[in-house]
Input
Amino acid sequence: MKKHRMLIGGQWVEPASGAWFESVNPFTAAPWALVPRGGKDDVDRAVAAAKAAFYDGEWRKLTATARGALLRRLGDIIAAEAPALAEIETTDNGKLIAEMRGQLNYVPQWFHYFGGLADKIEGRVIPIDKPGVFNFTREEPLGVVAAITPWNSPLLLAAWKLAPALAAGNTVVWKPSEFSSVSALVFGELFERAGFPPGVVNIVTGYGNEVGEPLITHGDVAKIAFTGGDRTGEHVYQLAARGIKRITLELGGKSANIVFDDADLDEAVKGVVSGIFAATGQTCIAGSRALIHRPIHEKFVERLLALARTARMGNPLDAATQVGPITTRPQYEKVLDYIRIAKDEGAVCRLGGTPANRPECGSGWFVEPTIFTGVQPGMRIAQEEVFGPVLSIIPFDTEEEAVRIANGTVYGLAAGVWTTSIRRALTMSERLEAGTVWVNTYRAVSYMSPFGGYKRSGIGRESGIEAIREYLQTKSVWIDIAGNAPNPFVMR
Ligand code: NAD
Output
């Protein structure tokens, strides 16, 4: 088993603890790599390296154009390494190779896009209301950014943070998930190859309480960019508040996929299936609630069941596999717990509802694609994030009712609407409380379009021009050009 090292100040180092932990392949349930168990001492070293790179090093002296060129070069290198990185991610987190290849082939675009944006960050000249004074703004980087990422789309979600943070001129300490650190450590080699000065990007692996907390509370960390569960996010927010730190939080969801009776049902069936069973439901934007217009409810459910039954399960490294394992053992148990809860609550299990004991699933943590009908909007299965292949179907009669049910959770990450009516598409997209609304499509994201949550799904936006603002602060500069000495006792 390969014993990995961490990236601090441009050096590949062993953890101060002298300890490593095993990373487990979810398909074989066997360990396949050893990941350094970082701790506070490593965090201190990494933040010091990032701080030095921010204040004293070559990085600060680069023009914005040169910084952008580095990011674009990195994008090109990632593109060349995408197949190898995708294979590592699949081995580490069990997500389908087809999905991870798609993600890795797309990751370079974040570095190309934000690399292009690096030298378009401009301040403003304010036509100030005071004669003889010139006032302008500068957009400046924040300093050391802590990036904390989850296991489900490890490098994609890291790119969403690193690309704008670096384009804005910050330096970074990145803590990947303890369940998917290997691709991060291999990815770390690419920064050096692209020509980034040492210390601009540092990677410390380990557990949330041992690495994440000292990182968030470190006095020299200016901003936290976090993606993960909302409970963890709440805790991270509290820790960051103590230091009055800037923060972006990309958290969970309970997204509604709403199908009206005027929809193209062939498309809608595919959209609802892909919304929940793609990525084995382990995606923040999983359309885990299907709200179905009552006139088509039964017909739609039958078609949904027919398509979901065809899902091929098995080795995630096999490109033909459509539903892979659950990434971690605790998550696997949590999914099965929610299935039990749904049954106890009186939901009707129409498909799956058990561990998948198929020969093609080996010894991995597989759960059968599961569909419940008869779900009431207030049930736990309709309110809480399962993060697995479990769909709750809820009927509705009117647009008003669909909006009420869709908005009736603490989350607001995404929603889908299936309709051929332009009026309905526009009305629903206005009334749904979600950071993303898809109409007649689902699970579309782009480096160009802002992504983030309403309500408990998060704070701030990633991707798109908005994202770079999350890594900048505005300074207002006043210059007296009239030479009028002001009255020292009166505010000017
Ligand atoms: P998680 O919250 O358990 O962990 C996320 C990261 O936080 C990991 O790196 C973890 O080590 C770290 N962490 C854990 N405890 C910490 C602590 N006390 N202090 C600091 N850091 C800590 O989430 P997960 O299980 O890895 O990922 C799944 C969750 O992420 C789901 O809820 C999903 O919806 C969410 N998610 C959201 C988005 C989005 O963009 N909105 C995208 C992907 C995943």
